[in-house]
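Hello again,

I reread your note about wanting to compare the complex against the isolated chains. To keep things tidy I'm splitting this into two emails, and this first one only covers the full assembly. Below are the input lines as submitted, including protein chains and any nucleic acid or small-molecule components. They are followed by the predicted structure of everything together. The single-chain runs will come separately.
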Amino acid sequence: MIKKYLKNIVWFLIAILGALAFSTIALSRNESINAVWFITAAICVFMIAYRFYASWIAAKVLVIDEHKKTPALRLKNDKDFIPTNKWIVFGHHFAAIAGPGPLVGPTLAAQFGYLPGMLWILIGAVLGGAVQDMTTLFFSMRRNGKSLGQMARDEIGVIGGTASLIGTFLIMVILIAVLGLVVVNAMKHSPWATSTVAATIPIAIFIGVYLRSIRSGRVLEASLIGFGLLLLAVFAGGLIDHSQTLRAYFDHDSLTLAWAVIFYGFAAAVLPVWLLLAPRDYLSTFVKLGTVIVLAVAIMTLQPEIKMPALTQFTDGTGPIFGGSVFPFVFITIACGAISGFHSLIASGTTPKLLDNEKYIPMIGYGAMLLESFVAIMALIAATVLEPGIFFAINSPVGVVGAETVGAIQKINSWGFKVTVEEMELLARNMGETSLFARTGGAPSLAVGMANIFGKAFGTNLLAMWYHFAIMFEAIFILTTLDAGTRVGRFMLQDMIGNIYPKLGQTSWMPSIILSSAIVVSCWGYFLYIGVIDPNGGVNILWPLFGIANQMLAAIALSVGTGILIKSNKLKYAWVTGLPLIWLIIVTTTAAYQKIFSQDIRVGFIAAARDLTDKINMGLIEDSKISITHQLIFNQKLDAFITLFLLIILWTVVVDMLRISFFKKN
Amino acid sequence: MLKIIKLIYKFLRRLSGDDLYDLYLKNHKKCANKHKLMSKKNFYEATLDKKWSGIKRCC
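Full-complex prediction:
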């Protein structure tokens, strides 16, 4: 009895502390706030959500039965269905869901100030993202580990199944393009960053050969060797940067680097898995986990002050990083970290085939998502501890602030954020770069933030090393996602074209591998090209497109969940998945509508295309730029078409789900 | 202390897939499996091919 009271008191205190931290963050205006409040609010909110909301969903909504045999036990074959320890499953699930998205999204959304992003990450994860992951995992487990596509086909119908298949392929293409753009922007005219990222390729290949032929399957020791080599690569990058002869080999513009990434993506999809993809994944997983843990410890120890205001004037949609107001664009920009449809593919992939007891569903489905949100919170902190002037100087594209340094500084100062040319030059020197102006994409500013935090914790004389370590850290798992995504895209395409010409469906037939890989790489390569030639930095176009696609996939997963709840006579609990679904429908539809039809040329694709056409007609475009302007016009129209297509898929699935749930008798 | 270190090492091996071949051998022996025993190299390649045939990494 006393124990019970004590427990209640502890939870009450956690709730009070969380409320205090939350209100401090929400109500602070024009005064600095410590990052510890962010961490405290996140931990308290996540603990309470996990203890009460996840448990309630498990007990009342899903009615989890710990005595029911899971697919891993019933269908055990030691190939796909393998009963596995819950912590191992948690590790695999977390490593699979936590990619570069929760680092990049919150960094970009910091243009609105820290508050919108912070609130959306906490609320979105607790009521949306974690619920989606947990319910999808449960429904998949109760259906012998079926994938989201199969469940959509079974529960909603052929339309739902086809829509989720097309949606998955589209999201893959846009995701790879935007991540490729992030890496390209981080390497642009940076010999140190380029040489370090390039070095990860031979290192991965060496580890691949080591793991296959020298010490077969010895993942731990190979990963340790690889990690040592990666550190050496960061150090060697510094030496290359200081050598006038060597740096010329690695000093390239965006377009050249984009072609390099495209060629690399093709090679990674065609080469055997053991040679490049798998060893890179081992390295990236270890680097990712290690860096995130060290970053968390450093933030807790240093307790840095947040420099970004709670809200900036850019909530009105005039932001330099991407156009669009705080509603709906903060909810589109931060997908991973709050709610990400992509997770539903993992939660209905390997994970349901490994769990040996249903009682671990909240821990894996809900808990792993909360941990990913925590990573997003740390990324937000790393971005907002920077002086806002510096943050905007790094992230504002040339198309907005101009190519001249002095003009760019004047423009940023006119927004009310102080920064000087000297400050930016000193920062670039400290980070081992020639310039940090207009380094869009989020990765460089996150790396500067991380380098500052690491520098303060472990010594400021190594700032340049920390900066390039952070760039390498981001690039290595962005490239893993790029490799893995291209490969999966290839399989999906082979599956589709195999229906027309069966020989092309054979995944190991080399002509089919080359053809399908080339098609997939061309698809994302084109979008990467669009991003690179865009004067506004590409992020303005590609990241919202990716966010809309990702949220559309989340809406499909939540539609499947809501449909199943309604059909299982649990209408009174359908709001659990229904509410986040309604929110996503509102957000995605509004964002898609604005991206297509807004008259603001930095938001609306059609308006931007029309503006460029008018400029050509009025003779405002130089002759040398006419052909590229025509291409930009075509790109804007193509983006409008894709956005419209995503919107049609979303509404088709939702309407079909409602029709089948309420009007079709089983 | 040594016990804890051993436990952590065992956990890390399991998490990273370092001990997959050991488990395979154990299982093969236990089940008196009719399939031909795979070499370490072949097993490693087969495991990776299977692992990377689906969506394994997210955004």
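For quick reference: The mean pLDDT of chain A is 92.

B.
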